[in-house]
Amino acid sequence: DSGEGNLEDAKxxxxxxxALVWDYFWVVKDxxxxxxxxxxxxxxxxxxxxxxxxxxxxxxxxSHVHQDAYCKMCIAEKKAA
Length: 81
Fold this sequence. Notes:
Elements: E1 6-9, E2 25-30, E3 33-39, H1 56-65, H2 67-80
Antiparallel strand pairs: 1-2, 2-3
Helix pairs in contact: 1-2
């Protein structure tokens, strides 16, 4: 095993994801286990974002590094509510 996972779009996985923040991330998996989360806006060669079973770190990354995208996401969340 090389330790490398498959890069997949977070919203196309088998698990239903409701948080809009997932639109901005790829999930790197080794089978079922999540190895890392990668920001689409930063690119596939960027530093992975820690994933601890919730979206707090993902939202924090988008809000601090991609303010315009965060504003768009917040507006879309308000419309969806």
